[in-house]
Amino acid sequence: MAKLYTLDEKLLTDAPEIRVKDKLYPVDNRQKTVRKLMQINTDQMDGSQVSEQMDQTLKLALGEAAFAEIDKMDLPFPAYQKLFELVMAAMTGEEEQEIEQRFQQAKHSARA
User: Fold this and answer.
1) pTM
2) Which of 2, 41, 66, 90 could form a disulfide with 16 if both were Cys (CB 3.0 to 4.6 A apart)?
3) How many whole angstroms separate alpha carbon 19 and alpha carbon 1?
4) Nearest-CA neighbor of 66 among 94, 93, 43, 87?
5) What is the pLDDT of residues 15-55, one digit of tens each?
6) Which letter, b or e, does each residue of 95-110 get, where b requires 16 or more Cβ atoms within 10 Å of its Cβ?
7) CA 106 to CA 112: how far, in whole Å?
8) Spatial distance between the Cα atoms of 34 and 40, rounded to a whole number of angstroms
């Protein structure tokens, strides 16, 4: 008898959310959005436009209106960086620590 693999209904319907202050923002983690995100990351591998990459990622994941709202908050950069990491984790299903470690490695490599 062949093995049967199925996708959990929760994986198909539950979208992750990020809380910023007292507001919840849904994160678009659909495969087409994540593919666009991967393309942005590949196109900007040299690290010269990290802030632009972060902005584009948040716009894709949260939508233009939510991004504009968050941008108006003028968050401290460490908070903005953490938000980026949380969104990446929510989009890819990875643990937050994995994303943070990869981000730090990329930042260190860009300096070298």
Assistant:
1) 0.70
2) 90
3) 46
4) 87
5) 889 999 999 999 998 888 888 888 877 766 555 577 788 88
6) eeeebbeebeeeeeee
7) 10
8) 10
pLDDT one-digit tens code per residue, 62-112: 999 999 999 999 988 888 888 988 888 888 888 878 877 877 776 666 666
Let me know: does 91 contact 31? Beta carbons within 8 Å: no
Burial of 93 (0-12, 13-18, 19+ CB in 10 A): exposed
* pLDDT-based confidence at residue 9 (cuts at 50, 70, 90): low
> In the numeric block, which tokens belong to residue 95?
């643990």
CA max distance for the chain:
58
